[in-house]
Structure formats: C-alpha cells, structure tokens
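Lecture notes, continued. The same structure-token format from the folding unit now serves as the input rather than the output. Read the line below as a description of shape only.
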C-alpha cells in the first residue's frame, strides 16, 4: 500500500454525521416526551393546572411547550457532544423510529387512556 492511500484512509470525514445524528435522536426524544407529558397531564390534576399556560387551550399549551423545550434542549446537548463525531446512524435511526412509534401509541386515545 502506498503512503498516499494510507493517508487517505486515515483522514477523518470532512463532514461528520454527529450533528445530523443529534437532530434525529432529539426528534425521537422530543416526541416521546410529548406522549409522556400528555399522559401525565391527563392523570394528574395538579400537573394539568401547572401546564395551563394559556387558558383557552388548557393544558395543551403547556404540554406542547414543554415537549418543545425538551426537544430543543436535547438537540443542543447532543449537538455539543457529537459535533465532531462519526456515529452509527443506523442505530440512531432505529432508536428514533422506535421512540416515534411509542409516542404515537402513547398519544392515541385508546392506548393513552390505559394509563
């Protein structure tokens, strides 16, 4: 093997996929947080009152705002941790899709009402 080929193989990627992985996983975490907060607000009168940021919409305003905050905060933290890393996107995509699927189940009324 020539020196040139060795150097080419050892160079890190020009554009690491860490920021993209952070965005993908943060979306999954944000969606599952929406389901968890929705179920918790339905079960707890105190939390329902606490999450009422705007009276005409009721606790929905706080549920969505809180889930949005979880998503953005998760994205910022993961982006900082992974901004120069090359990560296994397949595993991250699978985890995110699983979280998204669970969040759909959790916010589907017949399933969410079981809790």
């Amino acid at each position: 093997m020539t020196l040139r080929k060795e150097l080419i193989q050892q160079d890190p990627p020009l554009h690491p996929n860490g920021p993209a992985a952070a965005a993908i996983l943060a979306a999954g975490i944000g969606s599952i947080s929406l389901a968890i907060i929705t179920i918790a607000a339905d079960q707890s009168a105190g939390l329902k009152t606490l999450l009422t940021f705007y009276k005409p919409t009721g606790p929905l305003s706080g549920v969505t705002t809180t889930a949005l905050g979880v998503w953005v905060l998760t994205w910022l933290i993961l982006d900082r941790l992974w901004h120069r890393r090359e990560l296994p996107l397949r595993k991250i995509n699978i985890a995110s899709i699983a979280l998204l699927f669970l969040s759909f189940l959790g916010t589907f009324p017949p399933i969410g009402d079981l809790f």
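Point for the exam: The radius of gyration is 20 Å.
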